[in-house]
């Protein structure tokens, strides 16, 4: 037994196991977050949500997946077929790669990289290109409009997000996600969200991060890329069957990644709010609370106008996040811990 | 600068107010009527397609084929046929054909009826892909309904060892009779 676990912890096996585990985690979550989304949407509108397939509609994601899998994968005439096929995978892959450095608990992480935060954002920017490719290669006017929107939106929101992340890196002094969480040990007042003595605007920083995360994952109220009432299905218009399914799953995978990252950066990762019994369960609780908030936000606010969306970023979020960056660096200089 | 800040703050406050409202709705009970499992109570003045009324005393349709409804119908969707059985004081209906594809539920027929022999049914499950399903014989429908009532009563009576024995149904309901001219003979007997 020990020999087996020893073998499994050696390099190529450990990598494969981690890969399989992450893919299973993302796949399961993507499927069941759809259920959560639909149930949540129902409850917010005082409907029961899906009820027919399985108890409380719990088998609905499986039925949906079977339906998508059994559909023909149509590649329309005139599309750039290589890019058209690559795009869905390219949306999914960064989320999987990002979760590889995510510390789910003290010892549970596929890779403990020194520059984990940098890696996540490096891969995260591929996401934009992938949706743009999907829209561009579709040879469809809605898809191209959507692609243009995705680029301008995600560029606009990448800036405040990275400013916030720079603030966090300055405060924690590391890009290693494991160490960032470790520094927040010992009760919820040690979480970065409540470290008001290092930066009194910390909750605002968290809020900016959350808003940017919504915008980066193209979630409502910033779902301009897939504005179904005006752009059919945006960049995904020409996709059928599992091509669309992968885009759909990637959206949830990216939400998962964004919420995990917010948990690690601001809510103390696996740290318990009372300083005892820290572990995986706290990470999952916090992360799923944020996921729930994402659903909650979606079913509360109507989709913003495109100008409103860009104005929010350029006129409010970027100045405010710049200000918090300057403030926290000044405070760091004045009050060395 | 100052107005901009207050605008941001009041906007932010309104966002949280909205979130609070939806959260309260989230924990309230659902209001959906889960249709195939539950149905709403049909309002008393609901207008389904028309149906024949049974005379409680004789168990026969009240209709005596005066054809006023046929004349009153603005879209010619009613056709009534009847016979006058020997010895009877009035005619009895044998065919009451309603072409529901043309009916606009105006209710002129119900208003025109002297004897209250037709009324609006409470039927609303009328989906079909065949046009013929909407050309219905209301007399046959009445017969079928009667048959169904009797069968369910018979079933209830046969299961008497499980339930307390019910008193026999009032004699007003005649025994089951196949559709056709037979009810007319019975009219004779009752008279």
Write up this protein.
The complex is a heterodimer of chains A (337) and B (191). By secondary structure, chain A is mainly alpha-helical. Chain A contains twelve helices and no strands. Chain A is globular and about 60 Å long. Chain B is of the alpha+beta class and 191 residues long. Chain B has a domain at 45-144: Alpha-Beta Plaits. In chain B, 34% of the residues lie in helices and 12% in strands. In chain B, strand 2 and strand 3 (92-99) form a beta hairpin. Chain B is elongated, with a radius of gyration of 27 Å. The A-B interface holds A 40, 42-48, 51, 296-297, 299-301, 316 and B 8, 15, 18-19, 21-23, 25-26, 28-32, 34.
Give me a quick take on this structure.
The complex is a heterodimer of chains A (337) and B (191). Chain A is mainly alpha-helical and 337 residues long.
List how many beta strands of chain B DSSP finds: 5
How large a portion of the residues of chain B is in β-strands, by DSSP E? 5-15%
Main β-sheet description of chain B: 3 strands, antiparallel
Assembly state (oligomeric): heterodimer
CATH topology of one domain in chain B: Alpha-Beta Plaits
Helix/strand-derived category of chain A reads mainly alpha
Mean pLDDT of chain A: 84
Task: Report strand order across the widest sheet of chain B.
Answer: 2-3-5
Rounded radius of gyration of chain B (Å) = 27 Å
**Arithmetic mean of pLDDT of chain B:** 78
End-to-end C-alpha gap of chain B: 97 Å
Q: What's the alpha carbon Rg of chain A, rounded to whole Å?
A: 20 Å
CATH class of one domain in chain B, named: Alpha Beta
Structural class of chain B: alpha+beta
Architecture per CATH nomenclature, i.e. the level-2 architecture of one domain in chain B:
2-Layer Sandwich
Question: In angstroms, what separates the terminal alpha carbons of chain A?
Answer: 47 Å
Tell me, what's the shape of chain A? globular
- What is the tally of helical segments of chain B? 5
